[in-house]
Give the backbone structure.
Amino acid sequence: MQTKGKKLDTVLIVILFIIIAGLPLSIKILDRHFQPPAVSSNARVFTLTGHAQQGWILGEVQAHDVLALWRKNKQPADKPRIEVSRGDVVVFKLRSSDVVHGFSLIDFGIIITDGIEPGKTRYVSFVADQAGTFTFSCNAICGDYHQVMQGTLVVKA
């Protein structure tokens, strides 16, 4: 009976060791899978955070700020305006502070329909090869204020 207990203890210790040793490897693999794409040093990088009542917010919204956004006046924030020069490589880091959002910048062929989930970042990269004023928006119904989920990209000649 005691031999059976020792074998079980040994097996459990081996399993525990495999799990502990495998954790760093698993985390490294996950990091590689979700790691942002390589961004060239001359790229213009902008973070846009979606919020169901405030619209697109230029910059990152921390978790503790989400409660403050919900308590704020129910009027949406100012729509973000991003200015770049023609030929710039533009990278959008898209985040969500509350619900699943979508994103579209149709003039540059960018349409994300599978969602920007809270806590995850989606990267969109493109060359601003046409001058003008373009509208980006959320393309997933995300709440009562969905229609305010817009912003402007200005590409200067």
